[in-house]
């Protein structure tokens, strides 16, 4: 048998609607390990109880990459005792982009220059034209602080985030 140390877990819709299936993937061997219905904390219990999914040793798993689901975090903490979470970059970027957009929308109400600038805030700063850069630099401090389009947030994406105590 093989020993699995790093897994990824995500859920997807199994068909149109709200029926979800969780997928457990071995990141090192790049293969599907286990699937199970639902997306709750018990998803990890089912994985941990299935010796075929992880070569008889859930304790050997030291890295789990997952989305921001509190249920997944709880399940991993309870059923994979030696793991360390790493949150998927996609989900973190999505949250940051939503926060930047919320600030931009709020500022657009008091500053008309913010209207029609959504894509400028999401664009990689190195790809901005001189005119686009000037438009963003001309904005106020609050919006510049919220802007995370490649300057301050990405270094955090490569760091492991500790699981809740």
Automatic annotation (TrEMBL):
Q: Which Pfam families match?
A: DDE_Tnp_ISL3
Query: Where is the region Disordered?
Result: 125-165
Q: Which residues form the Transposase IS204/IS1001/IS1096/IS1165 DDE domain?
A: 7-137
- Keywords annotated in UniProt: Plasmid
Query: Which residues fall in a compositionally biased region of kind Polar residues?
Result: 138-151
Could you identify this protein by its name? Transposase
């Amino acid at each position: 048998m093989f020993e699995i140390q790093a897994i990824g877990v995500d859920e997807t819709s199994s068909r149109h609607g709200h029926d979800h299936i969780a997928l457990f993937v071995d990141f090192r061997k790049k293969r599907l390990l286990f699937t199970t219905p639902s997306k709750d904390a018990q998803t990890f219990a089912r994985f941990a109880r299935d010796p075929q999914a992880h070569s008889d040793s859930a304790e050997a798993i030291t890295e789990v990459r997952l989305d921001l689901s509190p249920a997944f975090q709880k399940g991993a903490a309870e059923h994979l005792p030696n793991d360390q979470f790493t949150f998927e970059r996609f989900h973190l970027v999505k949250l940051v982009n939503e926060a930047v957009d919320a600030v931009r929308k709020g500022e657009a109400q008091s500053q008309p220059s913010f209207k029609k600038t959504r894509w400028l805030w999401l664009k990689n700063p190195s790809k901005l034209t001189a005119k686009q850069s000037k438009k963003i630099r001309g904005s106020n401090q609050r919006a510049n602080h919220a802007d995370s389009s490649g300057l301050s947030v990405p270094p955090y994406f490569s760091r492991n985030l500790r699981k809740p105590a």
